Each structure stands twice: as C-alpha cells, then as structure tokens.
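Incident log, structure service

09:12 report received: a user says their structure output differs between two submissions of the same chain.
09:20 pulled the input from the user's history:
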Amino acid sequence: MKLKKENLSNFAFIVLLALLLFTPVGFHARVLVSRLFSFSPSELNEEEQFTLSNYNWELSTVNGETFDFKDTKGKVVLVNFWATWCSPCVAEMPSLHELYTDYHDQIEFVMVANDDPEKVKLFFNSKHYDFPTYFERTARPTVLSADHIPTTFIIDRTGKIVVEKTGAANWNSIATRDLLENLIAR
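09:34 re-ran on a clean worker, output below:
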C-alpha cells in the first residue's frame, strides 16, 4: 500500500502534535512561547484595588519550617502562586528571580508552590534559584484567591493590592521596577 502525500502530511502533523502535547519537548516549547508573550504587569486602577485586612495565613518552607504571613504586615510584598509543572510559571521564573536578586532585602517575596516539596527542591537546584518558597498550611486570605497559576499579587505597606496578574509576565521590567521603587519609597 502506497502512502499518499496527503496521508503522510496528516501523519506528520499528528506526530508533531503528540510531541508538543505529551513530551518534555512540548513543555519547553510552551515555556518558550509563554516567555515570548510575557509582558510587564500593570498597576490596578484605584477602584480595582482591594485591601488585605486579614494576614492570618500559615505557610511552611521547603524544609518544613513555619512561616507566618503576619510577619509581612507593613512591608511591600510580592506573592506568587506557581508550580513546577506549569509552563507559564516556569516561563516567568527567570524574571522573578532577577527581581528577587535586586530587591530581596527591600521586599518580601512569598513564592507559594502548588507542588511536591522534593520537586521544588530539584527544580530550584537545577535552575540555581534561591528565593524562598512556601507551601500552604492554612487557607489563604480571601483577597489572595487565585483560580489559575501563575497568579501574582503585589501588596503595598498599607495592605493594598496594587497588582494582580494571572498568567506569565515579565517581572524584571522597567515599569515593574519603577512601581516597586515607588512602593518602597512610600
């Protein structure tokens, strides 16, 4: 039986689709596409901003140590919900890490993983990331609800959520740095 040119191209398309959907090649392709289409997040309009009034949220570190979110009250905070299996999450990690490298002593970074701690350790070791990552022990404050990952919030010193971004973003942008500098100076 001879294969027709049309059948051969259909077969090639199915193989390519299977590669993109079901193999690590596809995961890396989705990460690349997410990076290409990641833009700087913008500040919420005043009427869209909510105030975080409840800081009751207990987290744990990769090593099982307790972290009380109440300790972030009065600080500028970046909260990011992510996972190692999430391609948009992985896509934005380099820009978040660059931001962390420059601002970790001025801003509280709360990276909340929806993942297995061992996978997070392996992922961080392979990428040489050193920002703190946490796992939820108790329910998060309602205003920090995230139906999708990645979702990132930037909270000012008064508890006002000034940025809420779902999906991959370029966090190491001039606009984000300007916003953070402004929030730090207040």
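09:41 both user submissions now match this output. Likely a transient worker issue. Closing.
09:42 reviewer note: The CA atoms of residues 52 and 159 lie 5 Å apart. The longest strand covers residues 77-82.
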